Amino acid sequence: MKLAYYPGCVSKSTGKEMDASTRAVCGALGIELEELDDWNCCGATHVSNELVAAGLAARNMAQTDLPIMTACSICYSNLRAAAQRLEEHETLEKVNAVLDKKYSGARIRHALDVILEALAENDERIVVPLKELKVAPYYGCLLTRPAGLYSPEFPIILEKLIKRLQAEPVDFRLMTICCGGPIFMPQEKAAEDIAFKILSEAKRAGAEVIVTVCPLCHLMLDAKQQVLEQKHGVRIGIPVLYVTQLAGIALGLGPEELGLDMNSVSPMVVVERMYARLSE
Amino acid sequence: MPIGVYVCHCGLNIAGVLNMEELKSFAEKLPDVAVARDLQFSCSDIGQEQIQKDIAELKLDRVVVAACSPRLHEPTFRRAISKAGLNPYMLEMANIREQCSWVHMEQPAMATEKAKDLIAMAVAKAALLKPLEPESIPVSKNVLVVGGGVAGIAAALDLADSGLHVFLVERRPTIGGYMALLTDVFPTNDCSICVLGPKMSEVYNHPDITLITYAEVLGVEGSVGNFTVSGVRRARYVDEKLCKGCINECAGVCPVEVPSEYDFGIGKRKAIYIPYPQAVPLVACVDPKACIGCARCVEACPAQAVKLDQEPQDFKLNVGAIIVATGWQPFDATRKEEYGFGRYRDVITTLQMERMLNASGPTKGDVVQPSTGKIAERVAFLQCVGSRDSTVGNLYCSRICCMASLKNAQLVKEKYPHTDITIYYIDIRACGEGYEEFYVRAQKLGINFVRSRVSCIDEVEGELFLIFEDTQTGEMKKVKHDLAVLSVGLEPDEKADVLGNLLGLSRRPDGFFEIAHPKMRPVEAHIDGVFIAGCASGPKEIPISIAQGSAAASKAVKLLHKGVLELEPTSAYVDPEKCIKCKLCVDLCPKKAIAVKSPAYVDEAACKGCGSCAAACPADAINMRFFSDEQIIAQVQAATEEKREFPLIVAFLCNWCSYGAADLAGTSRIQYPTNARNIRVMCSARVDPSFVLEALRRGADGVLIAGCRIGECHYRDGNYQALQRVNVLKGVLEKIGLDPGRVKIVWCAASEGEIFAKDIRDFIGELKAMGPIGTELKKGLSEVKNEETALP
Predict the structure, then answer these.
(1) Does A197 touch chain B (CB under 8 A)?
(2) What mean pLDDT is predicted for residues B592-602?
């Protein structure tokens, strides 16, 4: 299978491990990724102006005829929203008037969906089955918006993938609420409260690992975790993995390929426990 | 063909502005005119007698009256000439009052010039008039009512009591609809089945009602007065005539138990069942999906009524009118996933609550938590579930849910005074007789009201929590309840789609069937002889559904009671030689009056004469009996015979709205320039592009087409069709080098005289900027010349 790959800006900054693990996992699954030529912002920096956001997204989507995959839910949401807006003739005309390569439709996929599709049941490529690993599926808000493949309240696709990797999804009540990231700038305290609530709920649910599909969620739950622990005087200590990292571990990819050293809360204790099974 | 022309003074209304002498002598010289007279008041007895005298003495065979609007006195003069022996359709009116003297009071000379054109146009059209005979057709005095809910029952009883015969077709095994399943009903809290039950048996026993239950309509052919309806009566596997309705014998031995759809899933029934004790007809029914074929019921039945080999039966009915009372269906609460309906057992819907409160319902009137069976102590009602909610695509208010929850809350409170009840609402809509008082009563009973749209329901270790923002305090809250009742909205019954498609009914954006006019024709469909009653055309409470059922019945009685139907002879007809069978007309026709059966054929009883098909026909095979192509072209030619002013505008006005707006500008004395020569057409869609091209070719500087406001077409979507044609036409003009702005389409309602006047003023301004017709062609030529000379 060959897909166009849209890394998104985070892949060059706070989400390098998302990019590395996406490429590594796709490589392992035999999915050929062709990085989009000369890509630009997905439109997230201009969400308040629908036309500009659609234009930015359209410029990306016009670069290829292949289905476009991204691992970032923000990019995924923005590209899909743009594709929907561009179905309106008026918007399409305005956007195409300023584009060199004209936009004429695109199919956008999330890495989560691509990986799940590529992994058959009882797949032999799963060399490190994540048996008994308790995983909290955390969707955040953007994967399911605008409405599309998955239900916004009960998307269940992450649970499916977690089970396919032979891990156990925990009953995690706050899986679809906002991580607080989008309001972090204007409402820092409110954002932190939400993130802390999510982390506490994951702990209550007995999660050993939280899996995310969005770099902003990841930032809020992983990079902020230590600060939140100090602020509330509570130990949480749950590693937060990108879905691509979790899949990569099961596929037997090494910590370096998956960028596991870049996570703020080190997943290595958990990962080593999984690897240890191999030698058993 | 001697034509008589009568120019009316209308006292000083016309004569005060226009030069009557000049108009009379102008009319005298027009071709075929045998006599032209000016009359003080042409509509008075003296005026009419003069016209009748001339018809007799001068052997006039057609008459032109230049006076007020034909919308006012056309019927008067038609009657007058037919008394003198002429066919009433041999009359044409020139509107020189509302559309001339009253709107050009300060320009008498120019107004007189315009009136000359209007008279010349009327005479030109009159020369081409043909006598038309209104056709009478015999009609069936039977009426089909589809849907046996409260609206259908009301319609059926009124019709049958008026002496028409009714076929009442119901999809379910019993009539009664949703009302029969409710407990007490607001605002008086009387028992629902106690008031409906007697009506249901009246239907069953009425000699003039044929009740066909457990049946579907599958085909409708024909048109107003004579519909042929076919359908199928599904197999009940029980002989209706033999069954005694005892049900305990057969259901008692039936080994299969399934959730009962009549209890909305909270109760159970057997595979052989009667929906509820008051069902009509009181006949058992076998659910083939549940039945395992053990035949124990066959043995148990003391009347040998169970017939497991029963076959579905086809039926065919001839009816003159059809009443669509197909009702509604509850919003599927699982679509609001955040409320957990279907996952949390203690989240239920209004209808389940109704069944629980019902003394003959599954809990015998107890309000319990389904998960534990214990009496619920903290009950929440959540309003607007599936209504006023764009996330599920339902922007409308379902109208009855506020009152239903107020009622159910009161019933619970009366039964269990210690219950803690909260209604979560956006707005309480209690607007009906006695409704606000009912709301106050609920407040006095101690029911809590929280203004909030609940964000989600969470179940933690078997306990329900509502999470919401109280918008009166601004706080986020999480409150525990035992039972959450989702006040589900009303949606159009999707199973009614089959009938809707068969009849060609339109649906509004909210999905309900559209009525012919949103205010003035509340129970009529766009299709003649088809009426809509009750929730099929939108959510309604019981009294309004009943009123609509009765209203639809009276419309049907009015239509059919004489046994004959007189048809307006203004329909379209097809020249079979010219028809190329392209079927373009079939899709355009708002009345589904055209079928292509090699060649096309117009059902003249169904045709309303809008003329869109005639304008669209690429082979010119369709023409209209009234407002014919030839007549309109003759009007265009007369208007452009002598160009009396610049810019000269030929304006086509739709009969229903824009012609009315032009008349209103007159009665309101709104002044505007004289440039437009108005031609009345039934619909803006009647305007054939060839009319426009003919006008421009003959020197009109611009053509205006005015229709009803978008969405308000009196046929269906004629104004959209006109818009589409104008857009194509603009392209054509551009190709031949004319400014596309010379053809303009505008919308104005009959109440918008000022807007009509403004449209005329604006268009004049635009045409002045363009210059006389052909200016752009000359300019184009000189540009070409300049280029040529610039070449070396």
Answers:
(1) no
(2) 85
- pLDDT tens-digit readout, A128-171: 999 999 999 999 999 998 988 888 888 999 999 999 999 999 99
Is B314 at the interface with chain A, CB within 8 A?
no
Using CA atoms, how far apart are residues B59 and A137, in angstroms rounded to an integer? 94
- What is the distance of C-alpha B1 from the center of its chain? 43
Residue B337 in contact with partner chain A when CB distance is under 8 A = yes
Domains (ranges, CATH) in chain A? 2-111 (1.20.1050.140), 123-279 (3.40.50.11810)
Flag whether the ipTM exceeds 0.85.
no
Structure tokens, B289? 């999906």
Instruction: Check residue B778 and give its pLDDT.
Output: 79
Nearest residue on chain A to B343, alpha-carbon basis:
A154
Angle at A65 between CA A60 and CA A66, to 5 degrees: 95
> Which of A89, A154, A193 should be substituted to probe chain B, the one whose Cβ sees the most B Cβ atoms within 10 Å?
A154
Domains of chain B (ranges; CATH) run 1-132 (3.40.50), 140-234+312-327+497-565 (3.50.50.60), 235-310 (3.30.70.20), 330-492 (3.50.50.60), 568-622 (3.30.70.20), 627-792 (3.40.50)
120-139 in chain A: CB under 8 A from chain B: none
CA distance B312 to B235: 5
CA distance A276 to B294: 60
pLDDT digits (tens, 9 = 90+) for B319-367: 999 999 999 999 999 999 999 999 999 999 999 999 999 998 999 999 9
- Asked if the Cβ–Cβ distance from A154 to B460 is below 8 Å, we say no
Q: What is the dihedral of CA A32, A149, A217, A173, to 10 degrees?
A: -130
